[in-house]
Amino acid sequence: MGRKYFGTDGIRGTANRHPMTPEIAMKVGMAAGLAFQRGSYRHRVVIGKDTRLSSYMIENAMVAGFTSAGMDVFLLGPMPTPAVAMLTRSLRADIGVMISASHNPFEDNGIKLFGPEGYKLSDDIERTIEGLLDEDLSARLATGSRLGRAKRVDGVHDRYIEFAKRTLPRELSLEGLRVAIDCANGAGYSVAPEVLWELGAEVIKIGISPDGTNINDNCGSTAPATLAAKVKEVRADIGIALDGDADRVLIVDERASVVDGDQLMAVIAESWSEDGRLAAGGIVATIMSNLGLERFLEARHLQLARTKVGDRYVVEHMREHGYNVGGEQSGHIVLSDFGTTGDGLVSALQVLAVVKQKGGTVSEVCRRFDPVPQILKNVRFAGGEPLERDRVQDAISAGRERLGNSGRLVIRPSGTEPLIRVMAEGDDRALVSSVVDDIVGALKQAAA
Fold it and tell me: pTM for the whole thing?
């Protein structure tokens, strides 16, 4: 059954337009508050946000919803998504909320929900909340002394800073490393540079002046060229690019070349395997991760388990099968020894630890395999189901046959936009390009 509000990563859309309106945000607070009330104790929710102008609007609406459902609200202010997940557990909250549209432009916003253990909600729980959104909840809301209270919480930045530092061995120092970091004018703008500095690095900071409208604007992990130019300018040893809510990371090496999430997972997996820390004999990634990563792991007798796109599906598979490393090519990397969701800063720290251990340059340490040629194109559509057209299905079947066993083909609708993503990869770039173009052409005709 399709979902009306929730996509692959919570609820997301243009701020002040359906479904990201204050009315729906308040209803989400009511519905989630009612769904997570168990027992007669005073229930609590923690709410963090990124630096978007609209986050204030959504935050206030959600406070009204949660308090009307009888939940006490702890307001964290601008905080990375992984910090909200961590504080949900640490403060013994029943539910956690991150108000963010992640890597999207500032005009968008979103609502991500976490359960009491800090994990993103399952499809079943999201469907339960969706069902409540369309009901009249007035008879179930709190009255009198059962109404919730709201307050700002002090000291949460320090909690996350200490948490992030403790993910490294006590004796490991980043002294001698010149680190450039781009915080995307987003949720990590305050805490991320502080962690690096306290660990001993020389820190050059960009993307740390949020004004409500400049989040992800030509900066951060969606625009790594800005960081690459800074790395080259200041001759940094490494560049770290976070996204708007700091749950994903890309690295820029000393040559100003970008290192994606697949390479970072390879670095961590190989290092942890050598140290006997890698669980379940491999890692978890999505169907979009490069075939080169799979071959790299196979050569080291490690396996790559694939899931559908979305870091919460990666986490679900990790929890079910006992893995402790997983992630996405985009830079969502989940290290379950430390946290319950993607954490851009903690992932970068693990890579820095390997750099310090091996003593090489970042380009030497982080280029673990040659990626197989991979081409991804998006087709926007206004409505209907173009993927179901016979012409499109014929093009997909022909593409799979042409690639054979030497490549992969992935076609999927976006979970956050009206797009169909067409990805193919294989050893023959010209063949891959031809397959993608044929399918995209058929999709465009069907969408028209």
Answer: 0.93
